[in-house]
Amino acid sequence: MKLEKGATLVLASHNPGKAGEIRVLLAPFGIATRSAGELGLPEPEETGITFAANAALKARAAAEASGLPALADDSGLSVEALGGAPGIYSARWAGPDKDFAAAMTRIERELKEQGDTTHAAKFVCALALATPDGACEIYEGEVHGHLVFPPRGGHGFGYDPIFVANGMDKTFAEIEPAEKHAISHRARAFAKFITALKRDA
User: Do 186 and 22 meet the contact criterion of CB atoms below 8 Å apart?
Assistant: First the structure.
């Protein structure tokens, strides 16, 4: 799927932290972005059962509503001992007030109830690029690691304060954003997306 240099791409997200990360990753490629929130686009109900399905649903809705190509990200935390939860429900665990502190407390409590000590987890990201004609392509990335409690660090957003990637000793919220952008699940999905953009250029 080809994107012209200088094209405007709608970021199908109402999450300022997520939209900001995506803008940073897209900046070197001369692609202008507007978020769904800025454009006042409605948020579609996420009825998919996978990250990829929800990303595609959001991207297609934004592309249809705006008449522009749209990029959607569906991502979340998958905890091994919790059977992959919160998974696609990662944002919902934080509730309508986006209270991720409460969501992280819930994860810690449920891990204790399970008697889990490894705290193995991964972040998963699915990117969907859709055009107004309904075409859609998916790019996925993962980063594996483990969880720590209590939460640490003031950078990032969501579950970043409890996630430590394999090979690291700091949480995603303790490292500088540039370092996170180089190794995150979103960065890995973006690497595939950018490779496709270059291929189709």
Answer: yes
Measured over the CA atoms of residue 28, residue 29, residue 35 and residue 38, the dihedral's sign is positive
Average pLDDT per consecutive 10 residues, the chain (201 residues; last block may be shorter): 72 82 79 87 89 95 93 94 96 92 97 95 96 94 97 93 97 93 89 82 57
What's the pTM?
Answer: 0.85
State residue 97 phi and psi, 5-degree precision.
Answer: -90, 5
Is 116 a catalytic site residue? no
Domain limits for position 108: 8-200
Going by C-alpha positions, the residue among 124, 130, 138, 137 that lies closest to residue 188 is 124
**SS3 state at 79:** strand
* C-alpha 201, offset from chain centre: 25
Token digits of residue 180: 């996170």
Q: Is residue 88 part of a domain?
A: yes
Domain count, the chain: 1
CATH number at residue 31: 3.90.950.10
Q: Which of 73, 74, 133, 160 is catalytic?
A: 74
